[in-house]
Write a structure and sequence with these properties.
Layout: E1 16-19, H1 25-36, E2 40-45, H2 49-61, E3 65-70, H3 76-90, E4 95-98, H4 113-137, E5 143-147, H5 151-154, H6 160-180, E6 186-192, H7 198-201, H8 206-214, H9 224-234, E7 246-249
Parallel strand pairs: 1-2, 1-4, 2-3, 4-5, 5-6, 6-7
Helix pairs in contact: 1-2, 1-9, 3-4, 4-6
Length: 254
């Protein structure tokens, strides 16, 4: 008699994840990784429908399930619709990854009011709106991960607006962790160092990138998959006793 083959259950099987800003870079890496672990993924994007479609195509090719959803997450109404779409399509939301963000690297004397407002709208307001929705719509036992940055520790010149916005993200996430802990919901922060994405490399010379890579203990910049692996752990059952924490995923940079 042939031996019975038992299909292994994936760690995130039957879970539904919303990932903001998931069409490129770290967000796309997280989307592919969580889908590979069994989650049904909402790939949020704003302007690049083609890139979001490519992420979903890669997920489908690997046997996963996802849908692209356009939403401006700096708008409270569109954030509400993002959750609406996830629940209408998949019946629930178990995981929220606050990844959408914008970087303006400029001396504070040169940052306009409009630039500063844009950083706050995309990096901070989107997280507040997402956490407000998650407060009532995330399933009990759910998981939240917000992406910050090691610039909040390094205090690098030209990163004032960005560092301020990410500091706010950290505090919002910690308070949410306390408010929702009784429901078995965890909320943590992941702070990447330099990562090989368009956001990081744009405007930097090869020499600058090499110099920043040398700051890492392992002598390289990170890849989106390096960050995605940390997020995967934090949204898993194994991380149920980890909440309100800021995990540095930087190769030792900070």
């Amino acid at each position: 008699m042939p031996a019975m083959v038992t299909k292994m259950k994936k760690p995130l099987q039957d879970k539904v994840a919303i990932i903001t800003g998931a069409s490129r870079g770290i967000g796309a890496g997280i989307a592919r990784t969580l889908a590979g672990a069994g989650a049904k993924v909402i790939v949020n994007y704003l302007g690049n429908q083609k890139a979001a479609g490519a992420v979903c195509a890669a997920i489908a090719e690997a046997g996963g399930e996802s849908i692209p959803v356009r939403a401006d997450v700096s708008s409270s109404a569109e954030m509400r619709k993002l959750f609406d779409t996830a629940i209408e399509h998949f019946s629930r939301v178990d995981i929220l990854v606050n990844n959408a963000g914008v970087l303006i690297s400029r001396n504070m004397a040169e940052i306009s009011d409009e630039d500063f407002d844009r950083v706050l709208n995309i990096n901070v307001k989107s997280v507040f709106y997402a956490l407000r929705e998650a407060s009532t719509r995330l399933a009990d036992g759910g998981r939240v991960v917000s992406l910050s940055s090691t610039v909040t520790r390094l205090m690098l010149p030209n990163y004032g607006a960005y560092a301020a916005s990410k500091g706010a993200v950290e505090q919002l996430t910690r308070v949410f962790a306390k408010e929702q802990g009784r429901r078995g919901i965890t909320a943590n922060i992941v702070s990447p160092g330099p990562v090989n994405t368009e956001m990081f490399t744009t405007g930097k010379s090869e020499e600058t990138i090499k110099r920043m890579a040398s700051m890492s203990f392992v002598g390289r910049v990170g890849e989106p998959e390096d960050i995605a692996g940390v997020v995967l752990f934090l949204v898993s059952n194994e991380a149920g006793w980890v909440t309100g924490q800021n995990i540095s995923a930087s190769g030792g940079v900070a």
